[in-house]
């Protein structure tokens, strides 16, 4: 799940309507920690009964920023209850929350008077990591405007500040000293009423701290931090790309060292190996199942399973190349048989040098051992591991090799590589093929020949340049 441009524009329009021209007070923190409850206390309402919606669970009620006008010491502020940050269960939700918070900050044109970081009383163990994340997002200067509000405290901890202090970890004490001990307790709404003295004491202290900051944290400060963060991320991506290239060159060096004096002849022979039997079944994106011999360039076929918000879903990838195809040649295949937990049996015909996912790694099909080796098969939309029951040889008419953009394919419900002769270099070979993947984005391949594809011949003809990489490439 991502925040789309349309969603961002809607957020911006809503914020422009909601935010009068006053400095802001931001409530930030984890999902379900009690930001909305504290907001209601600050606004003079009971924590569970105010303009900010609350819920007694860890599900995020605040999906969009909630705002209200608050007056402290004759000064007006926009109190903004933000979506939960740093959601430990779902990184995508954290990304969305940060995007919304960034848009909120950029609409606080009169600055941010106070950032109230709302945390549970047991938060001390992860304080360093969370503060680093806040500094990375808001900048070091944001700590000069920060107030910590502890929630989920018991009766004794709320009534006696010293008892609460005794629960602080050394790291929490160090951090609170660093921000001049600006902290309060947000009373538990299940234990206290609005007219209780301790509620008044903590909320009065919070307002006193809010009013004491001499100047607001400005959007210009935030955008300066954001630009620095984006530059750092760009540099990190560039470094990662350079590191990938370095690893790729190391892999090529390893491959080069493995090539013997007969490598050139061997590479050509292996390049002409077959792959799958023509009647191997694949699943199209529209749910239809067809034989590989009927697959066309541009079809999207099932290539794996991924987790989408807790649901297992098939992943599909475009077929960009028919590496080679022959409908008449007699070819020797391995018949790999297996049985699913429900008792249903299945089989897959592929050549011995082809790559299949065996025992959690890609390996030659010839290394499959009946009753010992496990392969991954599709069962009710999920990938499960099953034991191979038998492996035999069978001669069949025709063969086909098709490449998807991700380099994998589900064939007869079995998770396979599109390549052969490459263990353990699946990623390296996939990288070597990136030029043709790029070219076919703009110019669709129409090759359906029984010889290997011209680009693959090019790899063979430039065998010395690629230092043996072709040997480990494909079928």
UniProtKB/TrEMBL annotation:
Protein origin, superkingdom: Eukaryota
InterPro entries: G_AIG1, Hedgehog_Hint, Hedgehog_Signaling, Hint_dom_sf, P-loop_NTPase
SUPFAM superfamilies, per the entry: Hedgehog/intein (Hint) domain, P-loop containing nucleoside triphosphate hydrolases
UniProt name for this protein: 2397_t:CDS:1
Keyword annotations of the record: Nucleotide-binding
Ranges for domain Hedgehog protein Hint: 272-461
Domain AIG1-type G: 25-184
Source organism: Funneliformis geosporum
GO biological process entries: protein autoprocessing
Keyword Nucleotide-binding in record: yes
GO molecular function ontology, one term from the record: GTP binding
Presence of the UniProt keyword Nucleotide-binding in the record: yes
